[in-house]
């Protein structure tokens, strides 16, 4: 299986090597992992991640603008929680996960979900400035090139709009750091990177501009809200 970390991509301006997770997931590895996860994802991961997801959706609901792109929409766990006036477009690489999201939209008659597309969040088909808000929940630590994901979301969000991430980021010390480094060896089976650092996603300048808030109760997840510059 090709490893995205070893493909000849121009990484200049992207995250420095020390911030890269040790084991990158390419698109095929993501699809394979989430084909396995799709049927059990909500049971295994839905509960523990619910606080982070709800916090991100609340933040989206409180921002101006109704055109929302949810990238890595997965099984659609967040979809029922958007305010009815937010018009949601969801994308995901995994058809197996999208199938679950489509079932949810039908079952819960979610009329504000405009579309669910199989699409790569790092290289979407959307025109510039198509959305007011883009949100990625537990996705940044899965994609091969998080900085490319961020650049793509900035492109499709209008100037002055917002890009939000909720994710688990690598601890900066202590036992948690040791555990996360050890767990990183299982990235391919897990389908995400336990050793994903905030700096792999955000530049220093983004970090200065972003609102970065730990999500209670345990602070295991962090919500990042970035407002797009007028010139982006
Ligand atoms: C950990 S799951 C999170 C799902 C959902 N956001 C949630 O909160 O439950 C990560 C999702 O991101 C998707 N994904 C990973 N890489 C992607 C990419 N490059 N483009 C679009 N979706 C991607 C996976 O297929 C998977 O559904």
TrEMBL record:
<feature type="region of interest" description="Disordered">
    <location>
        <begin position="1"/>
        <end position="22"/>
    </location>
</feature>
<dbReference type="InterPro" id="IPR029063">
    <property type="entry name" value="SAM-dependent_MTases_sf"/>
</dbReference>
<dbReference type="Pfam" id="PF08241">
    <property type="entry name" value="Methyltransf_11"/>
</dbReference>
<protein>
    <submittedName>
        <fullName>Phosphatidylethanolamine N-methyltransferase</fullName>
    </submittedName>
</protein>
<dbReference type="InterPro" id="IPR050508">
    <property type="entry name" value="Methyltransf_Superfamily"/>
</dbReference>
<dbReference type="InterPro" id="IPR013216">
    <property type="entry name" value="Methyltransf_11"/>
</dbReference>
<feature type="domain" description="Methyltransferase type 11">
    <location>
        <begin position="69"/>
        <end position="165"/>
    </location>
</feature>
